[in-house]
C-alpha cells in the first residue's frame, strides 16, 4: 500500500511539473511572439513615414484600405 501511494504521489508530482512547464512555455511563446509583432508593426510604420510624405497613397495601399 505504501509503495502504491508513493507511486501515485510521484505521478502526481510529474503531472504537476509538466503542467507548470507547459504554462511557462505557453507564456514565453505568447509574450515573445506578441512582442515581435508589435516591434514589426512599429518598424513598418516608421519605414512607411518617409514614403507617405512623398507618396500620400502608399499608407492606404499598405493597409489595404
TrEMBL record:
<dbReference type="GO" id="GO:0000155">
    <property type="term" value="F:phosphorelay sensor kinase activity"/>
</dbReference>
<dbReference type="GO" id="GO:0016020">
    <property type="term" value="C:membrane"/>
</dbReference>
<dbReference type="InterPro" id="IPR011712">
    <property type="entry name" value="Sig_transdc_His_kin_sub3_dim/P"/>
</dbReference>
<feature type="domain" description="Signal transduction histidine kinase subgroup 3 dimerisation and phosphoacceptor">
    <location>
        <begin position="21"/>
        <end position="51"/>
    </location>
</feature>
<protein>
    <submittedName>
        <fullName>Histidine kinase family protein</fullName>
    </submittedName>
</protein>
<dbReference type="Pfam" id="PF07730">
    <property type="entry name" value="HisKA_3"/>
</dbReference>
<dbReference type="GO" id="GO:0046983">
    <property type="term" value="F:protein dimerization activity"/>
</dbReference>
<keyword id="KW-0418">Kinase</keyword>
<keyword id="KW-0808">Transferase</keyword>
